[in-house]
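User: For documentation purposes, I need each entry recorded in a consistent format: the amino acid sequence on its own, followed directly by the corresponding structure tokens. There are two entries in this batch. Please keep commentary to a minimum and don't merge the entries.

Assistant: Recorded as requested. Entry 1:
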Amino acid sequence: MNGIGEKEIETTPDFCPKVHKPGFHCLENNCKHHSYTYAPYEIAYADKNGLVPDSDCWIGFGGDMEPEDYNEEKITNLKKLWRDVCKAKIEEAYEEFMQKADLKNK
């Protein structure tokens, strides 16, 4: 396990899960080898450990979602639209799961 630009660490800290991937446990234990970044306007699926398994499990506002003609007001409105779409899709995913799992009437 090593950080960017660091030499490999000989031993993995005891609190590091068997996945040997950075995650909440690094922050929780104030690991000197951790780093993090902010993820504004992101939506993701996290596994049983609270980790996002791979790049197919998250998406964020940006890139081709932004208009070519940069306009702060338009970007602000698009971010609000992204928020609304994400929230609706979360609700839609819940409803679909409940229906497919035959848990709707509980």
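Entry 2:
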Amino acid sequence: MHQQRLGFRPGGVQEDHLSVQPGVGLHLPLDQCRSLFLCTDGLAQCVGFGLAADVADLHRQALKQGMPALADALWARQGADPDLERLPRFKLRDDATGALCRLG
């Protein structure tokens, strides 16, 4: 999964999307957030299956399509890859948990 560091600049945050390592604390002014997206590595498989370009795009897709549509599309791609060859992984399906919160 692609990880980005948060870069601050005078007057605001430098990047629209941010991904942090597990266990890393993050403080961001609430007025600079429009939405918050959290996902497990299982849901992040959407990127590996070509449903999103990267985690930032996965966030945008979640806002646009909704979480159920993403999960359905992921399960369809996983089901079409029963031999685990298109996207190497340990099992057919991993947990695909995500949370999307719109702010403001």
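Summary note for entry 2:
The helical segments are 45-48, 55-65, 67-79.
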